[in-house]
Amino acid sequence: MTDVFISYAREDRAIAERIATLLEQEGIGVWWDDRIGAGDNWDEAIRGALARARCVLVLWSQASWQSRWVQAEAHEAHGRNALVAATLDDVVVGVPFNVVQTARLPAAPAHANDPAYRPLRDGILAKLGIEGSADTLGELSRRAEGGDADAQFLLGRRLYWGDGVAKDSVEAVRWWRRAAEQGNTKAKANLGAMLREGKGVARDGVEAAKWLEAAAAEGDGVAQAHLGILCVEGDAITKDVQRGVALFRQSAEAGNSFGQALLGQALASGWAGDRDYREAAVWFRRAAGKGSATAQYCLGQLLLEGLGVDKDEWEAAKYFRSAAERGAAEAQAELGLSLKLGRGVARDDAEALSWFRKAAAQGDVGGQVCAGMMLLHGEGCPKNEDEGIEFLKAAARQGEKRSIAELEKRKIAY
After folding, report:
1. Lesser CB count within 10 Å: N end or C end of the chain?
2. What is the mean pLDDT of residues 133-149?
3. What is the distance between the alpha carbons of residues 395 and 389, in angstroms, rounded to a whole number?
């Protein structure tokens, strides 16, 4: 489902990508040219997406003003009153676009509440007919209570993310359910995802499948990805790995970063056929560029082993760090190992131990055993056998053999 089409010059890709990520995090369907799959007709894909989009965001810059493609897309959007625009530099926008209110965005926004980004975001939401997201909480609540499905969805989203209100997953689910029952596609998708994961509501795969099927049939990428997981797992519905992977592909091609990461995992693992590391790397790169920690970690592994891509330990470490900084435990442990071994980065035992500790705190067995052994031997820190033993016990309880052997050698129970 395409809500927003982003038109931009190649030189401005980083800003376009960041805006796409922020909008997708709010449940808004976004199309930009990274959505074009292998083998697709480029011109047909762009024309089709442009025609389907309810809002066309044009990023004006010195480069894009010279692009006949951007000019053509802007004219098409202006002709049907779908145009929203932002200027990225000191470009002078000419007729007829100079009569369109234009936001100023000098750099990629850091987050959804970035002061420079908020006017652009609100303009996009208004063009989509969901301007209530800019309402005060009281106004939005009154609209939601009055039965406005869009307001119910938006209120649920604000409660889930803690946007101007305390985070409350239970209340988010309640509002998404009310909106879903009125047919709101994104609410169906979010409700299904929450039911599948057991967030804010008891886990219920059967009910999750009902809502996800409905939203997936309406083209929602989030729903397609979560429904694909249910198909692959086969617990709540009939197991059908082929269908699950097909749903991941639909989600990925619609531009959903979660679906792109899942499709990459399916291809790299051979869930529905032969492994295809090369295509997996393509999808991991797309999702990694949007901030998916899972994709960043997985792409790092491919780069580390040279699977489907040229081996590059430096780039692998860069992706491990990106994922680690987003809180991915496996990436934290892998970054620690890179720092410990000097693999793609300068060796730094102290920083390695710091990342191993973070991974261990999340229950990662690799982080536990590595932190434990470093503490036992005083690597990157003063020797601390008591703390090291506690980390090894935690790893041993997960069956980690090196930890078990070390503890048995010391005659320590775990």
Report:
1. C
2. 80
3. 10
